[in-house]
Specification:
The complex is a heterotrimer.
Chain A (H helix, E strand, L loop, with lengths): L4 H14 L5 H25 L2 H4 L9 E2 L4 E2 L12 E2 L2 E2 H4 L33 H9 L9 H7 L3 H4 L15 H13 L7
Antiparallel strand pairs in A: 1-2, 3-4
Helix pairs in contact in A: 2-8
Chain B lengths: L1 E5 L2 E5 L7 H8 L18 E4 L2 E4 L5 H4 L3 E3 L11 H8 L9 H14 L5 H8 L9 H19 L2
Parallel strand pairs in B: 1-5
Antiparallel strand pairs in B: 1-2, 3-4, 3-5
Chain C lengths: L4 E2 L8 E2 L5 E2 L2 E4 L14 E4 L4 E3 L5 E5 L8 H13 L6 E5 L21 H28 L7 E3 L2 E4 L2 E4 H9 L7 E2 L38 E7 L6 E6 L1 H4 L4 E7 L2 E6 L2 H10 L1 E5 L8 H12 L4 E6 L2 H7 L2 E9 L2 E2 L7 E7 L2 E6 L4 H12 L6 E5 L15 H13 L3 E4 L2 H6 L3 E2 L2 E9 L5 E10 L18 H4 L13 E7 L15 H18 L4 H8 L3 H14 L9 E10 L2 E12 L2 E12 L6 H20 L5 E2 L2 E2 L17 E6 L17 H13 L17
Parallel strand pairs in C: 7-8, 13-24, 22-23, 27-28, 31-34
Antiparallel strand pairs in C: 1-12, 2-3, 3-6, 4-5, 6-7, 9-10, 10-11, 13-16, 14-17, 15-16, 18-28, 19-26, 20-25, 21-22, 21-24, 26-27, 29-30, 30-31, 32-33
Helix pairs in contact in C: 1-2, 2-3, 8-9, 12-13, 12-16
The chains are: A mainly alpha, B alpha+beta, C alpha+beta.
């Protein structure tokens, strides 16, 4: 199983750190990777906390809207699969593409929230909490670090940079975001303090 | 040319693929039971079933409906026999009536997926449909009544 | 109540229909009385075939002088008819009447649905029509069977004499040849079989299967759709425009300039709207471009500091005020409100030679017919108007200037094409005709007894009727719709010194009656102030009102609402209640609102409503209208606000002009107090009390008074 990698990796870091005196050079590289990873997460954290990402990772079961993160009107609910309930399923309004015009429903194929058993809340989370949550297979739907990188390639994630008329984009380009996210994983998926 | 199936009848229409389904239904096929209220999926007056889901036809391009099954209020039942239509009349729900096609189409999905809806379920299903006459309380009662009628075998 | 004989109304002539049925024709009383009110003298006018027809197969068609916009006249007026006609309820069909003399409002003299008047104003006329038809049918049966009239009964569309049973349909032709009776006796209230009983709506079926035709649903071959680009600023005009891109849109057939803008005509709405979006228009915004609602209220505030036109006065406020020991001063602000009917404005027009046909949902078909005729250089009778179901009215479809009908006629005239004018939601939201913005400034001096000894009340807001054909309604400088609810407040009886003054500034923004009109703001001011006085006097709000109100009918509903709400019983922890009582349109309504505030969010749990409309002709309809009025009023409390900047309306659609939804709707209980007093209306009176009842409940929760609507987050925080 690939899901164990982050944990193994973390244990590895701890082992290395406690054994730092054994190899100064090695320890130096680890410290450097650690801070690169941590910094990378702090960069992507800004994106995660931007309305385009956070609004579909709400603390409650109602998606958010707008740069003020207000509750989605219409009483829209997450539903077990994250795709809404009954007559208020996401795809009833959210099309496979953005509907043109100000305040029109944005869209990509399979518009949805995280499912109820993997809520992946961004709203209200510190960088520390969010990083812990994202890398925890128990909370991230059993995703391995590589799976997490793959998730960042989905249309739904990329939508944040093509958010439709009148919506602000996250605070860095998609490529920057992707590279930083990958860097975070590659350099050890360090959880910032 | 675009081919679509509405209320089990096939139509071929000469419209742009990006034209909202609503205007194809209303202005091309003249199925006017589906209403225009806002054009931005805020009010639910234009709700129709696309493969059984309560889509807002004002923001649904006709391209999305190609070769799919569209049901409008006109096709919900023959002769007002759907439990919701019966319940709506029995609870005296409609006032101006303009939003009610959309209300019923939304409620139909609720009842199909949850034959015994609670008040909370009704809120969760129906809050996307605005009624300016404020018939919400009667809609709520009518859905409960329709659930009973459905159990008694009133399903089409 | 005793039965009444209407000898004044003579029914001179009847006539056969083409199919051999009966059409009833008779004199139309120019004014009706309310139940419990003395009959007014009436000029009469003969018009044939006005209200009902009976076909040989015993079907009854009833024509409505009032239009169905949700309030239920499609059912209530037939009830009045059926009660006296004794027909089979299941055999009734209903249609809107065309514009015409017989359908003019019995109290207003023009054809209008408004002012919550339909039921009481038709109470005599429609019962009379039914009774007259029945008398003729009975007479025809008597002749046919050779029995005296006294030997004949009627039942559910049949005449019965001994073991003989003849349908109305079979008798219709013979009846149509008889002279109409000169007077008919109406049933005693105790004998009513339909009136006073809850009857289900006759339009429910058509409104649940897509069959009901609203104005927007009109279609005939060759009809095109028109969408108009309106000036973004009120009063703005087109300087120049370039339609080349618009005309290049597939499906666009024509682009024409009309007085209110530029119309794009196309095969369907989508093409017309895309064409409109592609128009390049250079607007001359005119003087309205500098208007904004923030400075408007600053101006209004200044005006309120100056003396206005007197609208009511007793004693000497100026002398009494300084002598009072305690004062309450309050300033209230109410925004513009859009009607936001679910069906946006629309109108279909077809001009052929020297005739014009119009299809629309309108509250004033006669005025619209005249307006269309004027534009076309026709006589009104050259214009046929087919009233469709109205997808909501609330006053918006009663514009004295016939705005959307005129615009449609202009498009048809300019293009020479049959068109359906369709306003988008954005056009509708920004197209004007709002409940006027108002500011109230009130100073109350309390006497030593804690009761108001002096009350100075200044109201600032646009007149609805000024500059319209209804301007004549302004008396002594006062548009009654600006002050109703204050200058006729029942509390004034108990206030020795008061002065009510009005300022009616003009603005570029077009304004209109909006469900319950002036009462939308006056009830709020009066009922929150009375609550404030109760608090100042250290009294319970209900007990205080009881001590100061003398009006029996106000007290009746106040007590009923309080009792049904369990006013004296504690609520669950965290819940609070408020009460308000207000009369409007002849009906008395009290409401108790139960609320809680959780994390800054207002939740309205339950509203208990008591209504006294005299006699509830259709109690189910009365309940429905109270429910409807409460939701309408609650929407305004929570969300309703139209604001302008640089002369432009900022709101566009339901995302920024929100309407209450199912998950916000409280439980509503309606209790009808059947007083048998003078009849009032029900379409509007449910709206005024809810806002003050909510505000008073918020005070109970927070200790803070709400001075401005809609509610702001700060209103829901503790004092």
């Amino acid at each position: 199983m690939r899901t164990g990698r982050i944990t193994q990796c973390s244990i590895g870091i701890i082992v290395v750190l406690t054994a730092a005196s054994l190899s100064f050079n090695k320890a130096n590289k680890v410290t450097s990777d650690r801070s690169v990873s941590e910094n990378a997460f702090l960069q992507v954290y800004k994106v995660f906390m931007s309305p385009r990402c956070m609004n579909c990772h709400p603390a409650g079961d109602v998606p958010l809207q707008g740069d003020d993160n207000h509750l989605h009107p219409q009483g829209v609910k997450r539903g077990a699969d994250g795709k809404g309930v009954y007559a208020l399923k996401c795809a009833n309004c959210h099309q496979p593409q953005n509907t043109p015009g100000l305040d029109m429903p944005p869209g990509v194929p399979d518009w949805h929230l995280p499912p109820a058993d993997m809520r992946m809340v961004f709203q209200g989370k510190t960088a520390h909490e969010l990083a812990l949550q994202i890398k925890d297979p128990k909370q991230n739907g059993g995703k391995s670090p590589q799976d997490l990188i793959e998730h960042m390639k989905t249309d739904l994630v990329k939508w944040a940079w093509e958010p439709g008329d009148g919506r602000n984009k996250p605070p860095m380009s998609y490529n920057e975001f992707y590279n930083q996210f990958k860097l975070w994983i590659d350099k050890g998926a360090v959880v910032p303090n | 040319m675009i081919t679509l199936t509405v209320n089990d009848q096939s139509y071929t229409v000469d419209v742009e693929p990006t034209m909202p389904l609503l205007w194809v239904l209303r202005d091309v096929l003249h199925l006017t039971g589906t209403k225009y209220g806002c054009g931005m999926a805020q009010c639910g007056a234009c709700t129709v079933h696309l493969n059984g889901e309560a889509v807002r036809s004002c923001v649904t391009t006709v391209a999305r409906a190609v070769n799919q099954k569209v049901i409008t209020i006109e096709g919900l039942s023959s002769n007002n026999t759907h439990p919701l239509q019966r319940a709506w009349a029995e609870e005296d729900v409609p006032q101006c009536g303009y939003c009610q096609s959309g209300q019923i189409m939304s409620a139909a999905v609720l009842l199909r997926e949850n034959p015994n809806p609670t008040d909370q379920d009704i809120d969760d299903a129906m809050s996307g449909n605005i009624c300016r006459c404020g018939t919400y309380q009667r809609i709520r009662k009518a859905i409960h009544r329709a659930a009973s009628l459905q159990k008694e075998g009133g399903v089409q | 109540m005793s039965s009444t004989t209407y000898s004044r109304r003579r029914f001179l002539q009847t006539g056969g229909t083409l199919t051999g049925g009966l059409l009833v024709s008779f004199f139309i009383p120019a004014s009706a009385k309310r139940l419990g009110e003395k009959a007014a003298s009436a000029d009469v006018l003969f018009v044939p075939n006005a209200y009902l027809s009976i076909t040989p197969d015993n079907n009854i068609k009833i024509l409505l002088s009032h239009v169905e916009m949700g309030q239920g006249v499609w059912t209530t007026l037939p009830m009045l008819m059926a009660e006296e006609l004794d027909c089979d309820w299941d055999k009734i069909s209903v249609e809107h009447a065309p514009p015409g003399e017989p359908y003019k409002h019995t109290a207003y003299g023009i054809q209008i649905t408004g002012g919550s008047t339909s039921t009481w104003s038709e109470f005599d006329r429609y019962r009379n029509a039914g009774a007259t038809a029945r008398a003729l049918l009975v007479q025809a049966a008597a002749q046919k069977l050779n029995v005296p009239v006294s030997a004949i009964k009627t039942e559910k569309g049949f005449v019965i004499a001994g073991d003989k049973r003849i349908s109305y349909g079979e008798l219709a032709e013979a009846a149509s040849k008889l002279p109409a009776p000169t007077n008919v006796t109406l049933k005693d209230k105790k004998d009513w079989q339909y009136l006073g009983k809850p009857m289900r709506r006759l339009d429910a079926k058509a409104k649940t299967n897509g069959a009901a035709k609203f104005g927007l649903d009109v279609y005939f071959p060759d009809m095109l759709i028109a969408v108009v680009a309106h000036s973004p600023v009120f009063g703005g005009t087109v300087k120049t425009f370039d339609a080349s891109a618009a005309k290049a849109v597939k499906g666009v057939r024509d682009v024409v300039k009309i007085p209110t803008g530029v119309a794009v005509i196309a095969d369907h709405f989508w093409a017309a709207k895309k064409g409109r979006d592609a128009l390049k228009i250079d607007w001359d915004p005119g003087a309205g471009k500098s208007f904004d609602t923030v400075s408007q209220f600053q101006e209004y505030k200044k005006l309120a500091g100056t003396k206005g036109t007197p609208a009511g006065k007793a004693g000497a406020v100026d002398e009494a005020m300084p002598k009072t020991t305690k004062k309450i001063q309050a300033e209230y602000i109410f925004p513009y409100l859009a009607h936001a009917t679910m069906e946006p404005m629309n109108c279909t027009v077809k001009v052929t030679g020297n005739t014009c046909e119009i299809w629309t949902g309108t509250q004033m078909p006669g005025l619209d017919q005249a307006a269309a005729a004027k534009i076309l250089g026709f006589k009104p009778e050259q214009v046929t108007l087919h009233t469709q179901f109205l997808g909501g009215g609330f006053g918006r479809r009663a514009t004295p200037g016939s705005d959307f009908v005129s615009e449609a006629v202009q498009v048809a005239k300019a293009s020479g094409k049959p068109i359906k004018l369709v306003w988008s939601r954005e056009d509708d939201m920004r197209g004007g005709y709002y409940r006027p913005a108002f500011l109230h400034q009130v100073t109350i001096g309390l006497g030593n007894d804690g009761l108001p000894a002096a009350w100075q009340h200044r109201i600032v807001g646009q007149s609805i009727v000024a500059g319209t054909p209804f301007e004549g309604m302004i008396k002594d400088g006062i548009d009654a719709t600006s002050v109703e609810g204050v200058n006729d407040s029942p509390y004034l009886e108990s206030i020795p010194n008061y002065s009510i003054e009005l300022h009616s500034p003009k603005t570029p923004v077009s304004v209109l009656w909006w469900r319950s009109v002036g009462h939308t703001h006056t009830a709020f001011v009066m009922e929150t102030l009375i609550d404030e006085l109760a608090t100042a006097a250290g009294k319970d709000p209900v007990a205080y009102r009881r001590s100061i109100l003398k009006s029996k009918r106000h007290l009746g509903v106040l007590e009923l609402a309080a009792e049904k709400a369990g006013w004296n019983n504690p609520l669950p922890a965290g819940q609070f209640r408020g009460i308000a009582v207000h009369e409007s349109f002849g009906s008395f309504v009290a409401q108790v609102a139960e609320i809680s505030i959780d994390k800054g969010q207002l939740k309205v749990h339950r509203v208990v409503c008591a209504v006294d409309c005299g006699t509830a002709i259709n109690p189910e309809g009365v309940r429905a209208q109270m429910e409807s009025g409460i939701i309408f009023g609650l929407t305004a409390v929570l969300y309703g606000e139209i604001t302008l900047e640089n002369g432009q309306v900022k709101q566009r659609n339901f995302h920024d002009y929100k309407i209450l939804r199912m998950n916000e709707a409280p439980l509503i209980e309606v209790h009808i107090l059947e007083s048998g007093e003078k009849m009032g209306g029900c379409g509007e009176p449910g709206t005024p009390p809810i806002a003050p009842a909510i505000a008073n409940a918020i005070f109970a929760a927070t200790g803070k008074r709400v001075r401005q609507l809609p509610l702001k987050p700060a209103d829901l925080k503790q004092a």
